[in-house]
């Protein structure tokens, strides 16, 4: 079979240049050996890879394998360099975090056992203590007001059920129809006024909750950042003071300069956060007075009007403070939500 292929190949006309001219392959031993090698072992792809064109086609269709290998190696090296850079950056970050944590822990224990000094702003510290105490007392008011809402909600629901029962009995008991009817109307009126009072109390609870758990909490988070910055500042200040008492050789001077740089960075951070805390405390106090003045007036007027039986004054109070009542049954989940 090989001899048959060789004889056909020897006389086969194939293109021998890019113009499409044909010719006959010469019958020499070298060509025969090449064809036998291709049939036995396949083409040698280690030298070239043919990606377009046929045998004897333009050289542009042939990409040396060495170029592909070189491109692959270049991409691999670039990926390794990026990975190495990320690893070095992470290692640097962990190292800085470890040093900072060590210094702050050392400073914290020094202050706790009375061996280290701390920076104190007496006026600001007093304002922070007052805020924490105020938040604790307002949280107690919030708990009690929420409990009052829950208890009163049950009373209103009981009045509603009692009014429905009186109405039913007034229709089924002709001899007591008037008496049951009067009581049914009274319970329904109490229920209506109770829902108005619940709307006022819920508005009060919502406003106090926003003040305590959002406004005050936001200020306390800034205070926490300020206290952490104060600890870091004192830690690097103590470190600089210790180095300043050490030897002043070349290595010591370099360490002092680095410590001075870190000290300045943490000092700027501490002063910036101290300014932020001062401003937030000022605005918080103004906002607290404004909010609580309105809410306490609402709470007083609504409670007084309800227990005095003054329905008109209760309704006017809700209008004055822009309290919108929820329609009955709006708190219940919808049929779709229950599914």
UniProtKB/TrEMBL annotation:
<dbReference type="GO" id="GO:0034315">
    <property type="term" value="P:regulation of Arp2/3 complex-mediated actin nucleation"/>
</dbReference>
<dbReference type="GO" id="GO:0006886">
    <property type="term" value="P:intracellular protein transport"/>
</dbReference>
<feature type="domain" description="AH">
    <location>
        <begin position="119"/>
        <end position="319"/>
    </location>
</feature>
<keyword id="KW-0597">Phosphoprotein</keyword>
<dbReference type="GO" id="GO:0019904">
    <property type="term" value="F:protein domain specific binding"/>
</dbReference>
<feature type="region of interest" description="Disordered">
    <location>
        <begin position="62"/>
        <end position="84"/>
    </location>
</feature>
<feature type="coiled-coil region">
    <location>
        <begin position="256"/>
        <end position="287"/>
    </location>
</feature>
<protein>
    <recommendedName>
        <fullName>AH domain-containing protein</fullName>
    </recommendedName>
</protein>
<dbReference type="GO" id="GO:0032588">
    <property type="term" value="C:trans-Golgi network membrane"/>
</dbReference>
<dbReference type="GO" id="GO:0000139">
    <property type="term" value="C:Golgi membrane"/>
</dbReference>
<keyword id="KW-0333">Golgi apparatus</keyword>
<dbReference type="InterPro" id="IPR010504">
    <property type="entry name" value="AH_dom"/>
</dbReference>
<feature type="compositionally biased region" description="Polar residues">
    <location>
        <begin position="65"/>
        <end position="80"/>
    </location>
</feature>
<dbReference type="InterPro" id="IPR030798">
    <property type="entry name" value="Arfaptin_fam"/>
</dbReference>
<dbReference type="GO" id="GO:0005829">
    <property type="term" value="C:cytosol"/>
</dbReference>
<dbReference type="Pfam" id="PF06456">
    <property type="entry name" value="Arfaptin"/>
</dbReference>
<keyword id="KW-0175">Coiled coil</keyword>
<feature type="region of interest" description="Disordered">
    <location>
        <begin position="1"/>
        <end position="28"/>
    </location>
</feature>
<dbReference type="InterPro" id="IPR027267">
    <property type="entry name" value="AH/BAR_dom_sf"/>
</dbReference>
<keyword id="KW-0472">Membrane</keyword>
<dbReference type="GO" id="GO:0070273">
    <property type="term" value="F:phosphatidylinositol-4-phosphate binding"/>
</dbReference>
């Amino acid at each position: 079979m090989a001899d048959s292929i060789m004889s056909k190949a020897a006389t086969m006309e194939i293109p021998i240049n890019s113009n499409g001219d044909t010719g006959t392959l010469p019958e020499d031993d070298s060509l025969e050996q090449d064809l036998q090698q291709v049939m036995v072992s396949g083409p040698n792809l280690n030298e070239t890879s043919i990606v377009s064109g046929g045998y004897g086609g333009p050289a542009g269709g042939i990409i040396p394998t060495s170029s592909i290998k070189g491109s692959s190696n270049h991409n691999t090296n670039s990926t390794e360099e990026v990975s190495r850079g990320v690893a070095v950056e992470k290692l640097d970050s962990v190292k800085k975090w470890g040093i900072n944590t060590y210094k702050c822990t050392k400073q914290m224990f020094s202050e706790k056992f009375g061996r280290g000094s701390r920076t104190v702003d007496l006026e600001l510290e007093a304002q922070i203590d007052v805020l924490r105490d105020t938040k604790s007392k307002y949280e107690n008011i919030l708990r009690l007001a929420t409990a009052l809402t829950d208890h009163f909600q049950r009373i209103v629901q009981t009045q509603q059920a009692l009014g429905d029962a009186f109405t039913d009995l007034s229709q089924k008991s002709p001899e007591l129809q008037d008496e049951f009817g009067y009581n049914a109307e009274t319970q329904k009126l109490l229920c209506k006024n109770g829902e108005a009072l619940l709307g006022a109390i819920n508005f009060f609870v919502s406003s106090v909750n926003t003040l305590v758990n959002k406004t005050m909490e936001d200020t306390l988070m800034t205070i926490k950042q300020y206290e952490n910055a104060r600890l870091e500042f004192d830690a690097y200040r103590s470190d600089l003071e210790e180095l300043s008492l050490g030897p002043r050789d070349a290595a010591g001077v370099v360490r002092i300069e680095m410590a001075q740089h870190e000290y300045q960075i943490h000092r700027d951070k501490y002063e910036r956060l101290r300014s932020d805390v001062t401003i937030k405390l000022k605005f918080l106090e103004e906002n607290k007075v404004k909010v609580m003045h309105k809410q306490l007036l609402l709470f007083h007027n609504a409670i007084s009007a309800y227990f005095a039986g003054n329905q008109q004054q209760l309704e006017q109070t809700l209008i004055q403070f822009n309290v919108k009542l929820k329609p009955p049954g709006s708190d219940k989940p919808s049929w779709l939500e229950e599914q």
